[in-house]
Every structure is written in C-alpha cells, then in structure tokens.
Amino acid sequence: MSAKPAIPKGTRDFSPVEMQRRNYIFSTIRQVYALHGFRQIETPAMENLSTLMGKYGEEGDKLLFKILNSGDFKAKVPAEDWQNAQTNRLAASICEKGLRYDLTVPFARYVVQHREELQLPFKRYQIQPVWRADRPQKGRYREFYQCDADIVGSDSLLNEVELTEILDEVFDRLHIRVGIHLNNRKILAGIAEVIGVPDKIVDITVCIDKFDKIGLKGVNEALLHVGLSQECVEQLQPIISLSGSNEEKLQVMRQFLSHSETGIRGIEEVEEVLSLLPDMKNEVVFDLTLARGLNYYTGCIFEVKARDVEIGSISGGGRYDNLTGIFGLPGLSGVGISFGADRIYDVLQTLDLFPKESAEDIRVLFLNFGTTEAQACTKLARELRKQGVACEIYPDAVKMKKQMNYANQRNVPFVALVGTEELQAETVTLKNMKTGEQCNLPFADLYNALTSAV
C-alpha cells in the first residue's frame, strides 16, 4: 500500500470554511487600509538572494528558504567546495534565488526599481504569503500570510499616528481586545550609549526582544553571553523592569538618557505620537522591552498582543529611515505595519469570534427531480444570481434524502423544490431548513421570499 500523501511541516491546507474565515480577516484589513488611502501591489514569491541576504540580521538570514538553481546547478561549483562541504559557499554557488522572508524588503526593492513611476509619499498595502525556515510550533508556521501597509517618502510622525489608528480600528472590527505596544529604536540605541556599549545595540535589542519568552533571568544570561559585563547588565535592570503609566516611564527614561542626544530624540518621538493619538479603543503602552529584532528599524516600533490569548505578537512594524539605501536609493524614509493573519485566525478561532454566517454561503439549494425540472430550476437560479442571491442546483437526480443531507451538511438556509405539480403551476415549494416551515409561491415571488426572510 502506498504511503498517504502529506504536506511539509509548518504548512497547512485550508478547507472552504477556513477560507471563508481567512477572507473575513483579509477583507476587514483591506477595507481599513483602503479607507486610509493605501493602494495594493504584489511582488513575486521569490526574490534574488542578493535582495534578501543581510537585511534581517544573522538570525534572519538562517531562516531564508533558498531555491536551487535550475538545470545542472553543480556545474559551476568548484570540486573543493563539495569535498570540504563549505555550506555557505555552496549555497551562494547553487542558489541564486530565495522565498521572501517578509514583504518589507521586497517592497523596498520595488520602490527603488519603480521610483520614477511613484508619487511620493507612496502608501501601499500588500497581502501575500511569506516563508521562514523556522521550527514549527503553535502560532508559528513556515508559510504564512502577512498583510502589510507602508508609507515611504515622508518623515512625518503623523504616519506613525495613522498606522496606530489602523491597528486599533482593525482589531476593533475583529472584536479582538489587544494591547498596542510602542517603543523607539533610538531609545534603545541611547541606552546602549549610556551604559558604554554603543557597538552592542543589535545584541542588546535581540536579547531584550526575547523578554516575554525567557523572562528577566533569561535576558540577563543572554546579555552576559553576548559580551556585556555584569556592571552593564546591572545598569539595565531598572530599565528592563520599568513600570508605571506611559508618562511616568517616559519621565524616568528622559532622566536616564539625559546625556544621549539620540535617546532623547527617541523619547520626543514617542511623546509626540502619544500626544497626537485620539481616544483609542485599545490601550497603547510604552514598552521598553519591545525591541523588534530586525536590523532595519530606526525609529518608532510597534507590536500588538492579544489580551485574551497567549500567542505572541499578532501585528508589528516600525520606522525604517534608510532601507532603500541598500538598493541604491539613500535617504528615503519609510514606516510600516504588518498583520499576522495566521495568528489572528488562531485568536479568532480560540475566542469563537468568527461570524456565524458568511457572505460566501449559498442562500438556497434547488433539488433535482429530473431533466425537465432541473431545466426550470436552472432558469430560476440564473435569475436569482443576476439579483445577487447565491444559489446552487443539486447536479444529480438522486433520492431526496441524499439531497437534503447535502443541504444540511452545507448549512443551507433554504431548499427549493420544483416537482411535476410545481412545474405545471409555475410555483416553487420553499422550505426553511432552520424552522422546518415551507410554503408554495409563484416563481416571480421567490427572490422576495429569500431576501426578506431572516
């Protein structure tokens, strides 16, 4: 017996019901993006490795899925590379392309490549899958969708304010209670400067960013492991454990960073964003443990966490002042956010927050009693579809019990019967599958009966 087919770990199939629910998430996000003037683009699933490598830090580079060159990929590889098994050199020789790790770096490439066609500031959104060679676990997949919005060509902090409002509005529409966490990479750079290790900013942010996973003790051990002295780690303790209101925390940090121009500029940026925000439906929290490990962030950074489900970040983003510089267009500022659709799905599923009915469900199923009756049903169905009513005709003239079971399994609210008597009288018997009630009405009245009934 042949082995049952399977899919790679960290990937999933999606049933019709799951797709309806995913489309509910996508359409909600898409609607809010459109209300704020963002325009949709798409980029290829694969990019040149030269586009991707070095943009996500050392840890990120390890998680890139690389694609073998087509044809005889071994032909141009020196024999000593195979014999010595030098993995990095081999990968560079036999892989010229890779699956995209996120949507931000491909977007930066897009901006540079299409610069002459764009009107700045350019506001784009993009809803596509990305791939990471990560260890699969609950809430973490190797293939997943991101729903990004970015603004490039503007330094204004009004962009950060607008993106925070979008985060708030999307999760309010999805009925998910969240905390929107806000920090600034300039503040983190200022902390590294004040404790005397400015060259360790990347190491410090990577360690701090793991606070929720490994706790204070784990962060301290990680900081020592990357080369910080015990004295530096002790200086960081009151910062990592800082508590209080946003105003109180900012005041403490302003004093701590008083001798760091970069740090003070970060404080001022956070204060300005918070001061410009309207009344929010979800709490916005100044969080010093938020680091967003990606190397390209330079200013405000965001992360959103569900308050009622332990699942990690479900959205995030930040300011990247010179990401396009790596592609030959320096000085173009950008800021963006990304919704993790797959984790959002898991939260909605856990909290039973998906709509009970979907716009994609059919409203009525026509039963099939034979060729002549089916022809009449086809004509009725065609007219209903023209008026926007989703319907279906059972394709085979099988026993009525089988057709009714199909209707029950599909959760169809109405079943229409056009038998010999109905055909002669040009009427249809309409059965409400929830109440069991049924009525006989003229063909011309079917649309009103279906659209007026609850």
Provide a descriptive summary of the structure in words:
- With 454 residues, this protein is of the alpha+beta class.
- The chain has two domains: 16-45 and 100-350, 2-Layer Sandwich (BirA Bifunctional Protein, domain 2), CATH 3.30.930; 364-452, 3-Layer(aba) Sandwich (Rossmann fold), CATH 3.40.50.800.
- Helix content is 42%, strand content 19%.
- The protein has 18 helices and 16 strands.
- The strands form three sheets. Strands 1-5-6-11-10-9-7-8 form an eight-stranded mixed β-sheet. The protein has a five-stranded mixed β-sheet with strand order 13-12-14-15-16. Strands 2-4-3 form a three-stranded antiparallel β-sheet.
- Strand 9 (300-306) and strand 10 (313-320) form a beta hairpin.
- Helix 1 (16-35) packs antiparallel against helix 7 and helix 1 crosses helix 14 (341-350).
- The longest helix is centred in the N-terminal third of the chain and has 20 residues, at 16-35.
